Amino acid sequence: MSESDKVVRKIRAATRRRFTSEEKIRIVLEGLRGQVPISELCRREGISAATYYKWSKDFLDAGKNGLTLSTRRDATTDEVRQLREENDSLKKAGEIYGQYRKTIDD
Predict the structure, then answer these.
(1) pTM for this predicted structure
(2) Secondary structure letter of residue 34 according to DSSP
């Protein structure tokens, strides 16, 4: 690699725009609204389409994981005991109904 290539790379790296999380979210949400074509949005913001789609994928995955984790919780001991009691009573009711049906069918 020539010296001039190294200088050009160094300048590009130093002048590369860094986007904050808020800016990325704003850009992705604007793209998801669909009011502006993605190509135009990317041109206006100075990013490639690949960068936009990577941010979009990351954004949607984070939302999906956030929803999954926030709805998952551990049941308390009392809840487990109550559900087991309810399950047992439903099993008994099912057995009684089965015996009742058997006597009717005979």
Answers:
(1) 0.51
(2) T
